[in-house]
Design a protein that fits this description.
It is built from 49 helices and 31 strands. With 1349 residues, the protein is an alpha/beta fold.
């Protein structure tokens, strides 16, 4: 069922509106037909990469189990996110008929933002998508016709629709849950404040207070009321009016106090001094005494007036103020309305405090809160507190707060201690900021520790820790009091020992709230001392709130937090502001917050965005002073100092990892070295791993066992399936119960961009994210939406559906391009064919993700090779598939033996080559010649830049297999050496007839290019196993794979002919050159007897009769992992490159090509033999079938060859003869003469490839091609003009060969008449095309024969 049938049978689809948002409108499939066509076009690549089914190639280049279909009908636009943006943009602007390129260019130019280079880069993205779409279309058409791809059913499209629906539903649910959670937390954590005094009550209280105070100051006598009841004049009163606000209003009027007093007099509620009595002593009238009074003095129906009593305590206070000539303070305590003596923002003086002493006996305070009263001194506070120490007074005291009273002296401190001991009901004590002497610390802590009811203590800024001698004792006395539930020790100074002791004591107490802000003493070269406290919390079960702000905690503290609090049942809130946690520390905290095994619901991290992990690694496998724990890929080499809390926590995390993966400790912890032997793996106590706390421990944590045991249902070369499974197993997934707190934390950071970026960095490395999560993050913070896309894109599923929908979070096309350069390496990464060169910025999350995937694939392929019993062909004998690893400009092997021992850092540039162990499965079918030519023509005619064409080839490489001739044709389309090399590397392991690799290897006529290829692919893999003739080698024996090559060369020469190794020399590590006069040592045939270092240079030759094909095939199967299945000489297209021979040999070949149809015919004429129809090419039936040097010289003269005419004629002929006699027997046999036949085939094939290119570019008429080449129009082309013209039309093959053929007059010029010689090669091409049309190019040997006959 194709796309049209899907349209007919499906009831709806998904539509994108103009704003880029998805709408669920299943009834509008027809209106979006072009979108479905494009999505169907993408389905092949999508389904091959979506992590479903078996991706291992089978009979065809397509992975088995693929469920793709390609619509063969025309479609309006190419596939891809840029094309989708363009289509929607054109539709919105009503310009659907405009071409995508034109519309795109108009948009870019209208922005007036981009420079020319950037503009070219942006256009390159669109051209890349268009070329990829066209090439994938061609591939899919053929594979569908051959029945190798399954079709996409309508059900798959509906599943995609449901996925989009779930995306929006998930985002909405997260938004609602987070908003509700934040509102609920605001209510629950709102600071409990005492109810403020209503304005009405305050004015009534103040009016009564100062009316009471006035007679004593003015000595005004009381006046008798007409009714005999005394009264006081009041300036203000409260009246009730109908139109007043809230039904009441203050105004000057006739005092109502007289009427009230008369009323109380009638009720017999007045005391002897004519004031209302207070039977309960609480400052309020009994309820039955509350009467309604209106402004006229009558009973009102709307209001109650409460007249407060004036108690004897207040009278004494007034008298004391009169004596000291001070103004009374109208606090609620002074007016008798409360037993709480609080400052309420008032700064008391010593005189004012002394006045209050008169009230203490009659009105004992329950609360004494003088916080922030910096004017008070010992002069007032000492007598005041001494009086409070009275048993009758102190018994009521519940709270004592002298925080911030910095002018108090040691005498006051002593009185505080006495009061603490005397106040048996004291619940809260705050002496923060008091100048407590070090000699008083023990006394203070002893008094607190012995108190039976103290619950909340604040000892911040009292200088604890100044004297380490007393600190431990102080902490012991404080924390052994099980009544204490809240303790503040902030702004003191504690070292490692004190924090460790503090943590040990906390686990034994009942503490619920602990604050130790800014108390960590800095010790150079050590972790933050507070880590000792955090580590001890793993045994605590009571703490609910912990504040550790400004303690210089870095990422190491974050990991200690994660380790210690992973299963803490009660801790709900952490305050960690102003600590340099950085992204690594935040990552640990977010993992902790996301675990369901603990009760943490929130942590404050304002100002924690700064701080970075600095990883110092020694050279030559020395200690790693600051190892980094990776949750996703913990396998690495570790060197731990177990005296450091961070290292102990890291070790515990590794044990938890081993337990999670069910690894045997002996297999997980390898190469273990302990400075305090013997080392025993720890056990658990209360769920905590009891690791050692002394000594140094070195080991390699290996996860390969986990890979073998856990990933068993993935085929060996399903790389994408392995990555999906591995990330599903290892990446952190937030518990469903903790999703809301996790994203509530994100909302809390809104407006704090630096903190938000750290949050994103923390999620980017270890978390598995989903599309709703990403959509919520981008939607709630548009300011950082683009950065969120870049950082979180690697955490999404790898399938193309998810990626396509994720890219829709970009609001505009311009935003896509802003981020594309940072995301490009990940977008272009082909996990199914990872072979290639990578240059990655590890500070970029997307590049980091690529490096992480390469390391994981390296470990997976190592497991596969071990399981298959393959030989180790790595460069460093470590089974690694990564080569030439460089980080920070230094070779990685200087630090670690293998990348498996390396903890991937998050900074600087990492550059490497990856060489996969994947090999073409037996029976795999390559693309047909016709399809491959179509792909090459499409690529040639594309406007893509060469680097973009390479990206396209990388994207399609895992879908196809090719032949050696295809590879040869492809590399000719690239001018630059780097592009040509990259193209070959990408497809090297996709060649079905890799044993014919010499057919394309000869296209690299520069020895430097061959060395680069060997360096990137590996010397052992790229070794010319079956045709090593004429190959040159320069082998550095310090590298494992190059030692293997030297070993194979010597072993092969012993099997074939020892003299086959020519031009050899050995350069010692100190630079001495050994010409090896005794020859290459035979002992080198044994690997262990090779020198450990030095450079061995040589060239290998072999006569046809000396070849030992069985030995060569055995080497290929052992070290190249090839399956040759009893290959024979007839299965190999023996080949020689034109660059392998000297100019004299090529001159002779050009002479033969111009006069003979085959080199055997020339051999017969030179030897003077008799023609035999039974012999190929005419044959030779001379008595001996050989040519001596004299016969060769005479024969060349006889056939009229004057190529070597000159003073050195004999020398040049002798050089040619020696080349044709590789066995050095002094004669050239007919078999040895076939070297010229190999050159003949290469010569003619080069010309045919050039003719084919001309047909692709200009059509069948060679005149059109000539007109384009002869730009000057003078009718002739010199060799220089020829080379420039050929390069200008885009052909980068061996054009000099064609020129040599066409220049029959040897005048260094060619005319159109000479150019027409290429017509006969057109006929050969046409004949070969007719014979092989529609067939697969599976036999390069057959095609090569066609080219040579």
């Amino acid at each position: 069922m194709d796309a049209d049938e899907v349209m007919a049978t499906t009831q709806g689809a998904l539509r994108f509106d103009d704003n880029g948002k998805l709408n669920n409108v299943l009834e509008t499939m027809q209106s979006q037909h072009h979108l479905i066509r494009r999505k169907t076009t993408m389905s092949l690549e999508t389904d091959l990469n979506d992590g479903k089914g078996d991706r291992t190639p089978g009979k065809m280049a397509s992975p088995a189990g693929s469920k793709s279909q390609f619509d063969t009908k025309t479609h309006r636009s190419s596939s891809g996110i840029v094309a989708d943006f363009i289509d929607r943009g054109k539709a919105a602007a009503g310009e659907s008929d405009m071409s995508s390129e034109e519309w795109f260019s108009n948009i870019l130019h209208s922005t007036k933002v981009y420079d020319e280079q950037l503009l070219a880069n942006l256009k390159g993205v669109l051209q890349f998508e268009q070329l990829l779409d066209r090439m994938m279309k061609s591939i899919t058409i053929e594979t569908k016709a051959r029945g190798l791809f399954e079709k996409t059913l309508p059900r798959a499209l509906l599943n995609h629709a449901r996925m989009i629906q779930s995306l929006h539903r998930g985002r909405f649910m997260i938004s609602v849950a987070v908003d509700n959670w934040r509102f609920r937390r605001t209510l629950l954590n709102h600071t409990i404040m005492h109810a403020t005094e209503p304005k009405r009550d305050r004015m009534a209280r103040l009016s009564e207070f100062y009316e009471t105070y006035r007679p004593s100051t003015s000595e005004t006598p009381e006046k008798e009321h007409s009714g005999g009841s005394p009264r006081y004049k009041m300036a203000f009163n409260l009246s009730i009016q109908k139109n007043a606000i809230n039904g009441m209003k203050w105004e000057v009027q006739k005092p109502a106090g007289t009427l009230v007093h008369q009323h109380f007099d009638d009720e017999e509620l007045l005391t002897h001094n004519r004031r209302p009595q207070d039977p309960r002593g609480d400052g309020r009238f009994p309820s039955e005494s509350m009467k309604r009074v209106n402004s006229a003095g009558s009973i009102s129906k709307n209001c109650f007036v409460k007249l407060k009593p004036i108690r004897s305590a207040k009278r004494q206070y007034f008298d004391e103020c009169q004596k000291t000539k001070t103004v009374p303070v109208s606090s609620m305590f002074a007016t008798g309305h409360t037993c709480r003596f609080t400052a309420d923002g008032h700064l008391y003086t010593d005189a004012e405090m002394l006045n209050f002493m008169s009230m203490l006996e009659l009105k004992p305070p329950e609360v004494l809160d003088l916080e922030g009263n910096g004017l008070l001194t010992d002069r007032s506070m000492v007598p005041f507190l001494e009086k409070l120490c009275d048993e009758n007074i102190s018994s009521n005291l519940r709270q004592l707060n002298l925080g911030g009273c910095g002018r108090l002296g040691t005498k006051t401190i002593g009185c505080v201690l006495d009061l603490t001991r005397a106040a048996e009901s004291l619940r809260t004590l705050n002496i923060s900021g008091l100048p407590v002497g070090s000699h008083q610390h023990v006394s203070v802590c002893e008094a607190i520790g012995m108190h039976k009811t103290l619950e909340s203590i604040n000892l911040s800024k009292i200088g604890l820790g100044v004297s380490p001698v007393y600190t431990m004792d102080c902490l012991t006395r404080l924390l052994t009091n099980k009544a204490v539930q809240k303790l503040d020790l902030s702004w003191n100074r504690f070292y490692h020992e004190e924090f460790q002791h503090m943590g040990h004591l906390i686990t034994q107490g009942n503490l619920r709230n602990l604050s130790v802000d800014s108390s960590s003493a800095y010790v150079v070269g050590k972790d933050s001392p507070v880590n000792e406290l955090i580590e001890a919390l793993s045994f605590d079960t009571t703490l609910e709130r912990l504040s550790l702000s400004a303690n210089r905690m870095d990422f190491t503290s974050g990991l200690v937090f994660e380790d210690a609090l992973e299963s803490h049942p009660c801790l709900k809130q952490l305050i960690l502001t102003d600590n340099p946690l950085g992204a690594l520390g935040m990552r640990s905290l977010l993992r902790l917050l996301s675990r369901a095994s603990n009760g943490l619901s929130h942590f404050e991290s304002e100002g924690c965005y700064h701080g970075a992990a600095v990883e110092f690694q020694g050279v030559g496998n020395e200690d790693i002073t600051c190892p980094i724990f990776s949750f996703t890929n913990p396998g690495s080499k570790y060197s731990l100092d177990l005296t450091r809390p961070y290292h102990r926590s890291l070790l515990r995390m590794l044990y938890k990892t081993a337990e999670r993966y069910k690894l045997d400790f002996a297999q997980a912890f390898q190469d273990l070295v302990y400075s305090e032997p013997p080392y025993q793996h720890p056990g658990q106590e209360s769920g905590v791993w009891r690791v050692e706390s002394v000594g140094k421990l070195k080991f390699l944590f290996c996860v390969e066992t986990q890979i073998r045991s856990a990933i068993t249902d993935i085929s060996d070369y399903d790389f994408l399936g392995f990555l999906d499974t591995h990330f599903e197993m290892t990446r952190f997934k937030a518990s469903m119960t903790k999703i809301t707190p996790l994203f509530a934390k994100w909302r809390e950071l809104d407006g704090r961009e630096l903190d938000q970026l750290v949050y994103l960095d923390a999620l980017a490395k270890d978390f598995n994210m989903s599309l709703p999560y990403l959509a919520y993050i981008c939607g709630t913070s548009p300011v950082v939406a683009l950065k969120a896309m870049v950082k979180l894109f690697p955490t999404l599923p790898c399938d193309q559906h998810s990626r396509f929908l994720a890219m829709r979070n970009f609001p505009r096309l311009q935003d896509v391009f802003v981020c594309y350069s940072k995301m490009e390496n990940l977008l272009q990464f082909n996990a199914q064919n990872p072979t290639g060169h990578y240059k990655l910025d590890l500070g970029n999350c997307c590049d980091f993700a690529v490096a992480q995937r390469l390391i994981l694939l390296d470990r997976w392929e190592s497991v596969v090779n071990s399981r298959r019993g393959r030989a180790d062909i790595s460069a460093r004998a470590n089974r690694s598939h990564l080569r030439n690893e460089v980080h920070q400009g230094r070779s990685l092997h200087l630090r670690v033996k293998s990348v498996a021992e390396w903890s991937l850092p998050e900074f600087d540039i990492f550059e490497t080559d990856y060489m996969s162990s994947y090999r073409v499965p037996a029976g795999s079918q390559p693309l047909t010649d016709h399809l491959w030519e179509d792909l090459m023509v499409t690529m040639y005619k594309s406007n893509c830049r060469p680097q973009d064409k390479i990206k396209v080839l990388r994207n399609i490489s895992h879908n196809i297999f090719i032949t050696s001739m295809h590879m040869r044709q492809m590399v000719g389309y690239f001018k630059e050496r780097a592009h040509r090399t990259e193209a070959l590397v990408i497809f090297y392991f996709r060649v079905v007839d890799i044993h014919q690799q010499k057919q394309f290897r000869v296209r690299f006529d520069n020895e430097e290019e061959l060395v680069e290829l060997r360096t990137r692919l590996g010397y052992a893999v790229s070794f010319p196993f079956l045709q090593p003739e004429n190959a040159k080698f320069s082998l550095n024996l310090a590298f494992h794979d190059q030692r293997i090559c030297a070993n194979m060369l010597v072993g092969l020469s012993l099997k074939e002919k020892q003299g086959n190794i020519r031009d050899y020399q050995f350069i010692h590590p100190d630079g001495r050159i050994d010409v090896m006069t005794m020859g290459v040592p035979r002992g080198w045939a044994e690997y262990d007897k090779l020198p450990p270092a030095g450079v061995f240079k040589c060239r290998y030759v072999c006569a046809p009769e000396d070849r030992n094909l069985g030995c060569r095939a055995q080497f290929a199967e052992t070290y190249a992992y090839l399956t040759l299945n009893d290959i024979s000489n007839d299965d190999i297209a023996w080949w020689t490159g034109l660059n392998e021979v000297g100019e004299d040999v090529l001159d002779l070949l050009e002479f033969f090509i111009s006069r003979y149809n085959h080199v055997n015919e020339a051999f017969r004429h030179i030897d003077g033999g008799v023609e035999s129809a039974e012999a190929p090419g005419g044959g030779n039936t001379t008595s001996n079938g050989e040519l001596t040097l004299r016969e060769f010289e005479a024969g060349l003269k006889a056939i009229g060859c004057e190529k070597y005419k000159g003073p050195d004629e004999q020398q040049r002929i002798s050089n040619v003869f020696r080349y044709l006699d590789p066995g050095q027997e002094g004669s050239v046999s007919l078999a040895e003469w076939q070297i010229l036949d190999q050159l003949w085939k290469e010569f003619e094939l080069s010309i045919m490839e050039f003719v084919q290119f001309l047909i692709f570019a200009f059509g069948e008429n060679l005149r059109d091609a000539w007109d384009n080449l002869d730009a000057s129009g003078d009718g002739e082309l010199s060799e220089e003009e020829w080379n420039q013209a050929v390069e200008a039309i885009g052909y980068f093959g061996p054009s000099h060969v064609v020129f040599a053929l066409l220049d029959r007059t040897d005048d260094n010029n060619i005319s159109f008449d000479e150019f027409q010689v290429l017509e006969k090669y057109k006929e050969k091409l046409r004949a070969r095309s007719q014979s092989g049309k529609g067939s697969t190019a599976g036999s390069s040997r057959d095609s090569s024969k066609d080219g040579g006959t």
